[in-house]
Specification:
Belongs to the FKBP-type PPIase family. Its EC number is 5.2.1.8. GO terms for molecular function: peptidyl-prolyl cis-trans isomerase activity. It is a single chain. By secondary structure, the chain is mainly beta. The protein has a domain at 19-87 and 106-112: Chitinase A, domain 3, CATH 3.10.50.40. Helices cover 8% and strands 33% of the residues. The protein is built from two helices and six strands. It has helices spanning 55-58, 71-76; strands at residues 19-24, 36-45, 51-54, 62-65, 85-90, 110-119. Strands 1, 2, 3, 4, 5 and 6 form a six-stranded antiparallel β-sheet that branches. It is globular, with a radius of gyration of 13 Å. The protein starts with 18 loop residues before the first strand and ends with a strand.
Length: 120
């Protein structure tokens, strides 16, 4: 996957639970809980469709340990294989918390499309 994904907007109310959907199943090593992943990703607000973050926009992937990330990523990335593209729909409880918890994305359901480039 060498191009930024287009996100197709779901209809209806935001889900109350984490939704994991593999758009492309990879065939490389599998991401594990607590591991470090290198990813390309784009994140949008479920309600408005506005993009709030994208590694594509910065022109380079990012690597980080899973345990430092929001719960939706910690729960949604393990099991994904390198070369894969996965969509996560993450409710506020597994993202940045309820409205008023101090983060600009608090109270929001978020959609991420993540390309797993490597894992260690």
């Amino acid at each position: 996957m060498s191009s930024k994904p287009e996100i197709e907007f779901p209809s209806g109310p935001a889900p109350a639970q984490l939704v994991i959907e593999d758009l492309v199943v990879g065939d490389g090593p599998e991401a594990v809980p607590g591991g470090t992943v290198e990813v390309h990703y784009v994140g949008v607000d479920y309600d408005s469709g506005e993009e709030f973050d994208s590694s594509w926009g910065r022109g380079q992937p990012i690597a980080f340990p899973l345990q430092g990330l929001i719960q939706g990523w910690q729960d949604g990335i393990p099991g994904m294989k390198v070369g894969g593209r996965r969509q996560l729909i993450i409710p506020p409880e597994q993202a940045y918390g309820p409205t008023g918890s101090g983060h600009q994305l608090s109270g929001k359901t978020l959609i991420f499309v993540i390309d797993l480039l490597s894992t260690r």
